[in-house]
Amino acid sequence: MTADTQSTDTTAANDYDSPWKEALEKFFPEFLALLFPAIHAEIDWTQGVQFLDKEFQQIVREAKTTRRYADKLVGVTRGDGTAVWVLIHVEVQGEPETAFAERMFTYYYRIRDAYQVPVASLAVLADADGRFRPQQYHAALWGCRVELHFPTVKLLDYDEPERWAELEASDNVFALVVMAQLRAKLTKDVEQLKGWKFRLIRLMYERGDERALVLELFRLIDWMIRLPEALEADFRQALYTYEEQQRMPYVTTVEQAGIEKGVRQGVQQGLQQGLQQGVQQGVQQGEATILLRQFACKFGPDSAETYRARIESAEPEQLEAWSERILTADTPETIFH
């Protein structure tokens, strides 16, 4: 096996910030319940959650921070009715950052100063260096002293056998996000990474969650764990076979998630070529490929070939409608009418 196949594909930069930002917005209560349970218990969740992106971006601009982070500022209500802001720092860079604690302090005091609200700063360290564990910032001069102590969770600790078993046994959906992050950061052999990706997706299926939640979690895990193109194709084929064998109520989960991948590829192609046509072509090709695979699985390869020309020439909107109809269709003809 060559070196290229033994390690993850570094040509496509791993984007850990974006899936973390989305995961925090989609599953914020679950995030706190898993990683900061004592704080979760203090919040009145019936009052809702407010993501303060505009306010946080103002703080970032004032702090002159140029690097990108999966940081979130969230407004919640305590059990006693007090409105508080929770500042979540997720450090997902490849290497520890010496200025991390100072950045925690800078954001904390800027929020306090600008908005005059109680603030809790929480840190999630998703790097692979076990020695990097900042928990406080302090500065002093001639008897003047400032300090900030902040709760920190080191995801690397969950890689220990007992902690990992806790994640696998947890009914908290955010446990899957944490496991995907750990495997993406720590697994260097891509064959092993493919195996882990399949195992995590299968674990997600076995939880018996509703289809919408399954698709959302699938997309996040797929986003975090990136595989070289050939291995990604193998993974998706294996997963599709598993879905069929288990008679899952949401067969074609892989294909549904693949629609977004086709869209993203089309967008990237359009940007590179400077043509809007590339975007539409990417959408159409992605959805046509998905529908043809659905046909082959449900009605046989010959049926897929019979309708290939019609499918490949259809518009994206029509393909999307056909992809929904095939789930309940008894014959190919009922899909197109």
Please characterize this protein's 3D structure.
The protein has 337 residues and is of the alpha/beta class. Among the domains are: 14-157, no CATH class; 263-337, no CATH class. Helix content is 56%, strand content 12%. It contains 16 helices and seven strands. The chain has helices at residues 3-6, 17-26, 28-35, 37-41, 53-63, 100-115, 161-169, 174-186, 190-206, 211-224, 229-245, 253-273, 276-299, 301-306, 308-312, 316-325, and strands at residues 50-51, 72-77, 83-91, 119-125, 136-141, 144-149, 152-154. The strands form two sheets. Strands 1-2-3-4-7 form a five-stranded mixed β-sheet, with helices on both faces. A two-stranded antiparallel sheet has the order 5-6. Strand 3, helix 6 (100-115) and strand 4 (119-125) form a beta-alpha-beta unit. Helix 5 packs across helix 6 (100-115), helix 8 packs antiparallel against helix 9 and helix 10 (211-224) packs across helix 12. The longest helix is centred in the last third of the chain and has 24 residues, at 276-299. The N and C termini lie far apart (50 Å). This is Cytosolic protein.
Structural class: alpha/beta
- First-residue to last-residue Cα separation: 50 Å
Order of helices and strands: HHHHEHEEHEEEEHHHHHHHHHH
Stretches where pLDDT falls below 50 for ≥5 residues?
A: 1-13, 259-268
